[in-house]
Amino acid sequence: MAGSAIIRVKAIAIAANLTAPSPFMRSRRFLGDLALEEQWTPQITAKPTGKRILIVGAGPSGLSCAHHLALMGHTVEIHEAGPVAGGMMHFGIPSYRLPRNVLDGETARIERMGVKIVLNHKVEDIVAEKQNGKFDAVFVAVGAHLSKKTDIPARDAGKILDAVSFLKDVEMGNAPKMGRRVAIYGGGNTAMDAARVAMRLGHEPLIIYRRDRAHMPAHEFEADEALEEGVKIHWLRTIKSIDQTTVTVEVMEIDDKGRPKPTGQLETLEANDLILALGQDTDTAFLQKVPGVQFKADGTVIVSEQMMTRAAGLFAGGDMVPSERTVTIGVGHGKKAARNIDAYLRGEGYAKPGKKDLATFDKLHLWFYTNVEQRPQGHVELQKRRTSFDEVVQGLTEKEAAFEAKRCLSCGNCFECDGCYGACPEDAINKLGVGKRYEYNYDLCTGCAVCFEQCPCHAITMIPEPAPV
Ligand SMILES: Cc1cc2nc3c(=O)[nH]c(=O)nc-3n(C[C@H](O)[C@H](O)[C@H](O)COP(=O)(O)OP(=O)(O)OC[C@H]3O[C@@H](n4cnc5c(N)ncnc54)[C@H](O)[C@@H]3O)c2cc1C
Q: Please, which pLDDT band fits residue 64 given cuts at 50, 70 and 90?
């Protein structure tokens, strides 16, 4: 059976963006875990195309693009600056949210599909690299790794670090020496992760953020989990200055447009070191010399709807293009770019299939389904969380996965309940066998709509017959 590569990583990423993961996501995670355990490798049925594609960066976007291009029969080579594949999934997202054996397993699967990953190879001149390697197209996904800075008056201060370097150093086994209390400046996921990692290293982390909880960029669940673990969060505070053992902050207010406004009131917090988690910029300087490539003022690269830069055959995606910055988006960009690169190499345009109608709640027959309460997914015990990098959110057993799968409403998609087959008074519906659904005999069908009316998931649509000419 062919398992979709990076399915589990994507499942984690999507689940990470939801406060209540859907039954679909939970079951996908189970399948992803099983795929790793049993080493499933997708079978490539496409004929080799003889086309060579260079991918720059082995983060989620580059890996996803490689996976899809390999399935289409292309030869793919990834050039990665770092010592391992994974990008921010390896050096940003901590292992208690994305275990490294999972990440490595997903990468190994992509390599088993024939993708070549060249590590410790920073691309400086993309035009030369393309020519020398006889590549037909290039996908660039180098992420955003330059930490944003701010000027804070520091007198005789302890360490000031940036969050991405801190997380990377910890991941490489070089955790910096810091004092007991560590302040983290920022309100995004990176700030939450830096604080939770500092907690696991034995420090007392406190987050300082200029707005309130309702306006923080971090996911709700990340802030909840950080608070549960004992991280202190000082909302509505900006840092004015720091010294050896204290941080002076100014209390802020939120105005009616949700912007923080200074009040002039100062407070002192105890902290030995400061970690800045203020976001990242992308390092696209190496693309400046490529004729045609255009940039936004923040350094992100402008791409078309087809993910192509304004240089023909040079595509880009993930954190380095203007978009939301998540693994899910990066993986989606990789897939979209692969489809468009494939079409470009064939001298065609990729036509996106039309979307199916939305099957909204009012179109479903909810009585058909099992009505059960949502169950919280297993979490590692709190005390262990504070001191170890074990994965916090646990996977599902086969029984739990089957239960979650049964909760799925399968909206708009036939799941072969046989309702239409049983309801048709004219015997106009034939079963085609498991997984093959049904065949409708329109010579026998009278258009009574019984099948349509009973369908629990709205997989059947009634279309008016054309009026006789
Ligand atoms: C602390 C932290 C926590 C996060 N948590 C989440 C989360 O919970 N859920 C979520 O969805 N997202 C999360 N994100 C965001 C997510 O990690 C990124 O959006 C995603 O990794 C971007 O993917 P990418 O492939 O574009 O770039 P990256 O993952 O950054 O990968 C880019 C790769 O390109 C390589 N590279 C760079 N320059 C070159 C060059 N010149 N030549 C060759 N290789 C090069 C880099 O070494 C890197 O491996 C988090 C980010 C951080 C920092």
A: very high
Alpha-carbon distance of 92 to 211, in angstroms, equals 24
Burial 357-396 (b: 16+ CB within 10 A, else e): eebeeeebeeeeeeeeeeeebeeeeeeebeeebebbbebb
Q: For residue 239, give the CATH number of its domain.
A: 3.50.50.60
Q: Which domain holds residue 316?
A: 7-144+282-345
Cβ(315)–Cβ(303) below 8 Å: yes
387 in a structural domain? no
Q: Residue 163 CA: which ligand 1 atom is closest?
A: 1
Whether 446 is in a domain gets the answer yes
d(CA 309, CA 53): 16
Q: Is 112 within a domain? A: yes
Cβ(188) – ligand 1 distance below 6 Å = no
Q: Is 62 in the pocket of ligand 1 (CB under 6 A)?
A: yes
d(CA 41, CA 273): 46
- Quick: pLDDT tens for 375-426: 888 899 999 999 999 999 999 999 988 888 888 899 999 999 999 999 999 9
pLDDT in tens, 272-289: 999 999 999 999 999 998
- Taking residue 83's Cβ as centre, other Cβ atoms within 10 Å add up to 10
Unique residue bearing structure tokens 């709205």: 458
* Ligand 1 atom at shortest distance from the alpha carbon of 190: 1
| Total structural domains within the chain | 3
Q: Is 351 within the bounds of a domain?
A: no
Atom of ligand 1 nearest to the CA of 144: 30
Where residue 428 sits, what CATH number does that domain have? 3.30.70.20
- Nearest residue by C-alpha to atom 14 in ligand 1: 326
